[in-house]
Amino acid sequence: MATNGLSSALTLYGARTLTLSQAAAQAGLSEAEFIEQLERRGIEVTDSERAAALGSERPARAD
Known about the structure:
Pfam families: DUF7317 (PF24001). This protein is an all-alpha fold. The protein has one domain (3-55). It contains four helices and no strands. The radius of gyration is 12 Å and the shape is globular.
């Protein structure tokens, strides 16, 4: 993981210049991993982006 890319992505997401998925891609992380990095630094993740990111990584239910 490139620290420079992560730092830049965190800053740009925090300023709402990039979306969560754009910032995660810039950092070279999955959206779930990027959310973990944001939470560690106290950067707020919007509920809609969190739901979209984590919902897309959950396995489909067969019921």
